[in-house]
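I am writing to request your help with a piece of structural work I have in hand. I am sending you one protein, given as its amino acid sequence and as whole-number tokens for its backbone shapes. Kindly check, if you would, that the fold set down in the tokens agrees with what the sequence suggests. You will find the record immediately after this paragraph:
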Amino acid sequence: MYLETIKSEAKLARAQGNMHLTTVGNSRIQKLFQKGASKVFFPRRASGLDCIMINTAGGITGGDKFSNVIECYGNSCLTVTTQGCERVYKSNDGSNANVENKIVLKNSSRMHWLPQETIVFDQGRIKRELNVSISSKAEALIVEPIIFGRLAMGETELSGYFDDKIEIRVGGKIAFLDKTRLTGNISKILRRSAVAGGCTATAIIIFKSKMVKSFLKNFKDYLNNYSGVSLINDNFLVARLIAPTGYELRQMLVPIITEITDKNLPKAWRL
């Protein structure tokens, strides 16, 4: 009976992480709270603030829960990225991993949300939410890249569960809402011509700025035939990138991010 209890408790062990970061003034940290597997560090930068998020659990699997809140006030200029690609491993018990990110941008603050690719492994299960609230004067670049499967490991048939929601509010009103749910045989779904035409890598880019129109022409030049970009209004741009592989996705993403950030691509993206 004692051994059975130990095995049961070990099976239920899950990673949890919480982080809350608030910046004010000219990119000064006012509040930083981190708990569990969520850690952050701040590389030196000439201007603004760089934040690198680290999952010390080494990946995500069924039952894990992560929650992050980032708030920017004043004239804060914050860039947030991850140490490397996040991996969604096989869920042994069929439960979902849950990730919630909340971003609040007030006043004339500016933020670049640039996590590196999330890689979904076979039998991986994840439910994610990204909620962003932007004031009328604030600016934001939101990038969320996803790769399904590991082609280098021969993982071409992928099943699992992927539930992703991105909600952007500007001045309290919904400006953009995107929901993606892939369940069961994900590779079969991605092979549909109306979904991804067999491509395994995708990214969404959201750019809210007064400078949106000036980037639009060059933006289109970086895109392949699978991808597209649209203006929601004069200062709000949305692009969907689709590529056969993660490498080809990066070939589009890196020059786009480099141009929008004025050649301030996070160092973690160049390693």
